[in-house]
Write a structure and sequence with these properties.
Blueprint: H1 6-19, E1 26-30, H2 37-49, H3 59-65, E2 72-75, H4 85-95, E3 105-109, H5 117-128, E4 134-140, H6 148-151, E5 155-158, H7 164-175, H8 179-188, H9 193-200, H10 203-218, H11 224-239, H12 242-256, H13 262-302, H14 315-324, H15 327-345, H16 350-366
Parallel strand pairs: 1-4, 1-5, 2-3, 3-4
Helix pairs in contact: 1-2, 2-3, 4-5, 7-8, 7-9, 8-9, 10-11, 10-13, 11-13, 11-16, 12-13, 13-14, 13-15, 15-16
This protein binds zinc ion.
Zinc ion binds next to α3.
Length: 369
């Protein structure tokens, strides 16, 4: 008999709760990246918003499946350190309004370990006594980081992790990607199948991966001027996917123009501005993750660990480099990437941080120690 995963169990529990009309106002889904928290929340939204309990064919179901139902609101931390209080205030204000299309509405709050301090306090009352037919699904990677005041107001469901092999198979099933490509995307996206799917579907993000690999291949032969140009090109490539986000935002504003008041439209605009900034940080993080995965390939070759390479286009360059350098150089190079991430988090401009990184990497990777 196949073993039921944590996600399957939680999905069954949620579907039954809808059927039996035994719903809580707030659920907290806990599981590591890639364990299916977000897709489970959307499945729940479909059961909840469809008049037939999730028929799959009505307009509510279809809009949920397209991730564009006006009564499902998805929130992610928009500040450098987590949720900002303006976000939560917008949410509280919005939650008092009636649903737009369905008979209920759902707020999906991701990464709730980053819901702290004033932002968390601003949510407590609404979480405890939400307006009628308003539901919350919170997600988090671990239970420890969740504030007790949040935890105690939610029905907690633990999903457990998806084993790495399963994530790979699932990603290949969903995208039709070849194993090496799927493996690379998973490494860059921290093991999350959902993020890796979006990554593989975005030409701009794939182009970023390709550019990062090309830059690493030519790094040792590049002069200072070339490195400065490479850094500029990389940052431009990392920002390119933001155009897709801006286009989505314009669509949202246009659609919202049909049913939102002027002040609601303004607050949507503000929300989008914060989202754009947080997406920019995410794509810059993805650039660093591309470089990290390239160096990870180098490290595994240098220590002779047999595993498939994520950056197959660079196989020859990686093999050559790994044959010349001890593994410690790759370890040091990976530390430089971490440092670049910290610099960006502390407000160094991405351009400067990436320039410094490329200079560091060229130095670290050119001298055997
Ligand atoms: Zn339906």
């Amino acid at each position: 008999m196949p073993v039921e995963s944590g996600r399957d169990k939680a999905a069954r529990f949620l579907a039954q709760s809808v059927q039996r009309d035994q719903l809580s106002h707030a659920y907290l889904l806990i599981g590591p990246q890639g364990s299916g928290k977000t897709s489970l929340a959307w499945d729940f939204a479909q059961h909840l918003l469809c008049a037939e309990g999730g028929c799959g064919s009505c307009e509510d179901c279809q809009r949920v499946q397209r991730r564009s139902h006006p009564d499902v609101h998805v929130l992610a931390p928009q500040g450098v350190k987590g949720y900002v209080i303006e976000q939560v205030r917008d949410l509280v204000r919005d939650s008092a309004l009636a649903p737009i299309q369905a008979s209920a509405k759902l707020y999906l709050l991701q990464r709730c370990e980053l819901l702290q301090d004033a932002a968390a306090n601003a949510l407590l009352k609404t979480l405890e006594e939400p307006p009628a037919n308003t539901y919350f699904v919170l997600t988090a990677r671990t239970r420890e980081a969740i504030l007790p005041t949040i935890l105690s107001r939610c029905t907690v469901l633990e999903l457990g992790s998806a084993p790495a092999d399963e994530a790979l198979v699932e990603l290949m099933r969903q995208t039709g990607a070849k194993p090496e490509r799927a493996l690379g995307a998973l490494a860059i996206c921290g093991g999350s199948v959902q993020r890796a799917c979006a990554f593989l579907a975005s030409p701009a993000r794939l182009a970023l991966w390709d550019r990062a690999a090309a830059t690493m291949e030519s790094l040792l032969g590049a002069d200072d001027l070339q490195l400065l140009q490479d850094a500029k090109d990389l940052v431009t490539a990392a920002r390119a996917p933001l155009e897709d986000v801006s286009a989505q935002h314009e669509e949202q504003l246009e659609e919202g123009g049909d049913y939102l008041s002027r002040s609601a439209l303004r607050s949507l605009g503000e929300q989008q501005k914060r989202e754009l900034a947080s997406q920019e940080r995410e794509f810059l993080g993805e650039l660093l993750a591309c470089i990290r995965s390239w160096l990870g390939d180098g490290l595994s070759l240098a220590v002779g660990a047999p595993r498939a390479l994520a950056n197959t286009r660079s196989a020859a360059a990686l093999r050559q480099l790994a044959s010349q350098l001890p593994s410690q150089n790759f370890v040091n190079a990976l530390k430089s990437v971490d440092l670049a991430g910290k610099r960006i988090a502390y407000g160094v401009t991405p351009q400067l941080a990436v320039e410094a990184l490329l200079f560091d990497l060229r130095k670290v990777l050119s001298c055997p120690k």
